[in-house]
Amino acid sequence: MSAAASQLQKAVYQALAGGTALKALLGGPDIFDHTPPSASFPYVTFGQTSVFDWDTASEPGCEILFTIHIWSRAKGRGEVFAILDTVTGLLDEAALTVEGHHLVAIRFETAETGYDDDVAVHHGQARFRAILEPEA
Asked: What whole-number distance in Å separates Cα of residue 2 and Cα of residue 114?
C-alpha cells in the first residue's frame, strides 16, 4: 500500500507542477516534499499521508488521505486562499495517471487556514481522499 501512496504523490506533484496558474501564484514550481532552507514564500508542501485498506470481497485496493500545505508571508489570507483554490481545482476529481494503479477517484475533503504569530506565516491546508486499485 505504501507503493500506491508514493506513486500517488508523484502524480499529484506532476499535476501541481504542471499548473500554470499555480506556478504564477508561487512565482515558480515551488512544491516540496522537504522544504529547502532557501525556499522563498509562498510555497506548497506535502503533508501527512494516511493509507487504509480498501479491499472488497473481489478487488484489492486502498484509500489514501493526504494533505497539501500552503505557506505565505503575504499580509492577510488572500494569497493562501487563492493558492488553496488553485490546488483544489487541479486535484479535485482529476484524471491522474498513477503508475501501477488505477485511480478510482480523488476528491477534495476539507481546507483550513491560520496564522502562526511565532514565525509570521499564513498557513493553509487542503485534505484530499483518493481510492486506488492495483493494475491487473
From this structure: 30
